[in-house]
Design brief:
145 residues, alpha+beta, Arc Repressor Mutant, subunit A, Dna Ligase, domain 1, 2 domains, 3-stranded mixed β-sheet, 6 helices, globular, binds zinc ion
């Protein structure tokens, strides 16, 4: 499943004439396999052993390229560093308040909310983002009282 989507991402990258480098491939692969919405820094740490000459800036630049092509979504959270999401179809996020882990969950798109918002405000809706906060199973079990 992950491999299939990875291949699709590689194909769309090829169709835009973006050159596939070993580093690009590794970053994409990490994104599609980890499913943890990593930050550029986490990706860098995971791959620095493989690519000793790669910098965090390189990782970030590559992520920006992926974002422009539309195979990666950037999730910004105020001042905290951005996280990157390889799933570009609509889905929602469950976020752990303790460790910051982000888990995807599927829920029918909230189209009705969008049309209502559009109707009430006169805005032209482009997208929406919904996040639910709590404590992940790991953090709940290791919590000390
Ligand atoms: Zn947690
Ligand atoms: Zn996600």
């Amino acid at each position: 499943m992950a491999t299939e989507r990875l291949q699709q991402a590689i194909d769309s990258l090829k169709s835009t004439k973006v050159r596939m480098t070993p580093q690009r491939h590794a970053i994409l692969e990490y994104l599609y396999e980890s499913m943890t919405h990593p930050t550029a820094d986490e990706i860098y740490k995971a791959l620095e052993g493989k690519f000793p000459n790669m910098s965090v800036a390189t990782v970030y630049n590559n992520l920006r390229v992926f974002k422009e092509v539309g195979i990666v979504k950037e999730l910004t959270y105020g001042d905290a560093s951005s996280r990157f999401d390889c799933v570009t179809t609509d889905h929602y996020h469950m976020i752990c308040n303790s460790c910051g882990k982000i888990v995807d969950f599927d829920y029918p798109g909230l189209d009705e909310v969008e049309s209502l918002a559009e109707h009430v405000t006169g805005f032209q809706v482009e997208s929406h983002r919904m996040e639910i906060y709590g404590k992940c199973p790991d953090c709940s079990t290791t919590a000390k009282h």
